[in-house]
Amino acid sequence: MIARPTERLHIEVASSDPFARGAARGERLRDTLPGGIAGYDRFFRLGGISPHQVRADAERALDTIDAFCPRARAEVEGIAHGAGGDVRRIAALNARTEILARSATVPPGE
Questions:
Q1: 78 with 18: CB under 8 angstroms?
Q2: 65-87 burial, b for 16+ CB within 10 Å, e for fewer?
Q3: Alpha-carbon distance 82 to 64, whole Å?
Q4: So which domain of life are we looking at (predicted)?
């Protein structure tokens, strides 16, 4: 399923298991998720945020999510599994606003 620029991608997944729910969502996003990740990688680069810092921030985000709601972390891990990607890349996308907040060159609000 590819979203047209004027149409919003909507995915419905029903599962009580957070990892399975995330995996199903990740499978459906497998073709479009890499573009979103690449776009934010570009923002991070333009903001002077190194890949090492992005990874460290993503790991902290995962730890924070886990401390707050382990089921939410399981869903993030499921998305990475379903999309065939690295969980830190999904976590960085999830925490993009917080990561970009450390930039001196990217204006607030992305």
A1: yes
A2: beeeeeeebbbbbbbbbbbebeb
A3: 22
A4: Bacteria
Residue 75 lies in a domain: yes
- The pTM assigned to this predicted structure is 0.82
Q: What is the separation of C-alpha 45 from the centre of its chain, rounded to a whole number of angstroms?
A: 16
Q: Classify residue 64 as exposed, middle or buried by CB count within 10 Å of its CB (0-12, 13-18, 19+).
A: middle
Give the C-alpha separation, 55 to 76, whole Å.
Answer: 15
* 27 lies in some domain: yes
What's the total number of domains in the chain?
1
Q: Are 76 and 66 contacting, i.e. CB atoms less than 8 angstroms apart? A: no
DSSP structural state of residue 107? P
Q: Which two tokens stand for residue 64?
A: 């924070």
Q: Backbone phi, then psi, for 99, in 5-degree steps?
A: -65, -45
